[in-house]
Specification:
Largest sheet: none
Number of strands: 0
Strand content: under 5%
Oligomer: single chain
Structural class: mainly alpha
CATH architecture: Alpha Horseshoe
Shape: elongated
Number of domains: 1
Helix content: 55-70%
């Protein structure tokens, strides 16, 4: 129930960021107003379909600075693995509307390309341009500050990554993310800070007790501490969760700090 509540809250937070534009805002520019209308026609068709892409092309032709159409036209290329064409289009969206699309491009660089340095550049640039909260990734699963932390971890800047997540968790103005404590716990485990790792992973269970992976890492910590019986109990729970379908998954990519059933069985 708690997980569902967090998901609903995150979806409400993210909705304004990725909703279609209000065409009435372009009434004073006839070409861009018409471009917006064409984009609204495009999204009525299946994403990536011929008619959808044609309307986005029409939109861009009418108003070359209409960033929304570049971004939406780019999405199907990203999902199909045509990253060069995606990059060409999303770069245009960022050029014309950096505040709206830097975070999106940065998240996609992390999620799809594992381009950690590029993602860091995008998200840090967005942070430098934003007075208030920089917001969430496209899916709503991660605050962009946490996504940035994962990039720093991947590039070897572990302390910086930990500090970013800790700051995010201490920010009372935003909800705790679905996986924030999990990633922090994994970082602490990998650094040998076992007591802090246990605290973070137990906090993860309190926020989102949905993942077998959490129990796997708890088991690894207890094993390092010589508590083999407790480790085995956690591994059995991790296996149970995994067989029930309670684990990290993504339609297009492998989530960071992902653990598989084989990892659990081998540990057992």
């Amino acid at each position: 129930m708690k997980r569902i509540s967090v998901l609903l809250l995150l979806s409400l937070v993210c909705l304004p960021l990725y909703a279609p534009p209000n065409c009435e805002l372009y009434k004073n520019d006839a070409d861009c107003y018409e471009a917006c209308q064409a984009a609204m026609k495009a999204i009525r068709f299946r994403q990536g379909s011929y008619y959808s892409q044609q309307y986005f092309d029409q939109s861009i032709e009418l108003c070359q600075s209409f960033a929304y159409s570049y971004q939406e036209k780019a999405v199907p290329f990203l999902k199909r693995g045509a990253f060069i064409e995606w990059k060409r289009l999303i770069d245009k969206a960022v050029e014309y509307a950096p505040r709206e699309y830097l975070g999106y491009r940065g998240w996609c660089r992390l999620q799809f390309l594992r381009d950690y340095e590029g993602a860091i550049q995008d998200i840090e640039r967005l942070r430098s341009m934003t007075i208030h909260d920089i917001g969430y990734c496209q899916t709503g699963d991660y605050h962009l500050n946490v996504a940035l932390a994962l990039c720093y971890k991947a590039t070897g800047e572990i302390e910086k990554a930990q500090l970013l997540i800790e700051e995010q968790l201490n920010n009372k103005n935003v909800p705790v993310g679905l996986y924030d404590y999990y990633h922090l716990g994994v970082m602490e485990y990998e650094q040998g800070n076992y007591e802090k790792a246990i605290q973070s992973l137990q906090s993860q269970i309190a926020v989102n007790d949905y993942m077998g992976e959490t129990y796997y890492f708890l088991a690894m910590i207890y094993r390092e501490q010589g508590q083999e019986e407790v480790a085995l109990q956690n591994l059995k729970k991790a296996e149970q969760y995994y067989r029930q379908g309670r684990f990290r998954s993504d339609t297009y990519t492998e989530p960071m700090d992902k653990i598989y059933l084989l990892d659990i069985l081998e540990a057992m």
